[in-house]
Amino acid sequence: MELNITRIKQDFDGILQFNQTPEKGWTRFSFSEEDKMARDYLIGELKKLGVAVGVDGIGNIRAKYGSNLNQPSIMIGSHIDTVKHGGRFDGLTGVLVALEMIRVFKEENIQLNRPIELICFSEEEGSNFGITMLGSKAITGKLTVEDLKEIKNPEGVSAYELAKGFGLEVDQLPAQILKQNEIDSMIELHIEQGAVLEHNGKSVGIVEAISGMSTYKITLKGDSNHAGTTPMEYRSDPMVGAAEIIASIQKAAKHRALPTTVATVGKIKAEPNVPNIIPQQVEFYVDIRDVQKKGIELVSMELEDMTKQVANEHRLTAIIEKIGSSEPVKLSSRLIKKMEECVQANNSEAIKLNSGAVHDVAMLKDVAEIGMVFIPSLAGKSHCPEEYTDFQDIKLGGDFLLNVVYTLATETQKV
Ligand SMILES: [Zn+2]
Description:
Layout lengths: L4 H12 L16 H16 L3 E4 L5 E5 L7 E7 L12 H16 L8 E6 L12 H6 L5 H6 L8 H7 L7 H4 L6 E9 L4 H5 L4 E6 L1 E10 L3 E2 L11 H19 L5 E10 L5 E2 L2 E10 L2 H21 L3 E10 L2 E2 L2 H13 L5 E5 L4 H4 L5 E7 L15 H20 L5
Parallel strand pairs: 3-4, 3-5, 5-15, 6-14
Antiparallel strand pairs: 1-2, 2-4, 6-13, 6-15, 7-11, 7-12, 8-10, 9-11
Helix pairs in contact: 1-2, 1-3, 9-10, 11-13
């Protein structure tokens, strides 16, 4: 039993034609015209297979295949929305592999003890509202209808209004929240968005854990003054303070935290941001991630200490705000074991690795056993037009997942 890569390629073509920014990568925001057309394509293909398709109040598409539809399902899928000027493979690959898998199960007339359920999560990238994984958060009750009324896009339109305008029955959401035992397992196949698989020359990765993160906003206030007339010893320069802190964060993550810890400063703003004026204020954001909480804590502590020390030394006022955090998530050891058994049984190859990015599947950790399969991203690039995954790797990763799902859906007893 194997996936038909020609059909998967056709599905890619079928959906990639719906693009808000031709010539500039692929842009397909949730609730856009292009999203509507992509959804119609996907739903059309599922209906051809005779699969009943449901769409919930936030736009998650769910389609169950099999005979014992009341049994907890083995869920597979991902998302089809993109960032602005994104790539072809992020999210879409997982959904199209899931679609093809249902085709194969139907074609081969496989008898399943548990249904296979395709899910396509809505608004994963946060492209509209700056909040990621809206669909998986709403379906697990982490975002309520009231929350959706408060979440607004830059034009001031709420997620509630946008979804409603898209034809969704948002008020139905409370009844659609995933219940315990509704889903047995959820496995998301996704491109790695990193280069570990490529560096190891492997096509399939079994994900062990998903990184947690803490995000801080640091504001340093000093004394703005003339760049030419203010002697060095009289300065309270927040830019110098920021530079010292930023350099120390890199060293803390690299040398004093854990081997898995990463920390980044990707955004900085100076005021008044003029070449010949000592800035009045500098603010920057620190993103710290690790699959172990300890690593995040170590860098966070150092960031706080260093900020206080630097503020003191340079006579600055420092404000440290924690603006976001999520816990690391360990994926189901039972599913990891099943995956390893599949690797052995098929004499194939896979490595175990971690995910530095959070994915929809992590939101389901309290209602199902969760697992993740990675396939390579060329040079680790993602969220850009250069994002590329070889179709041969999609086939290898997809066939691997097919075997795992087959095992889970056909075993008579859960072991
Ligand atoms: Zn994604």
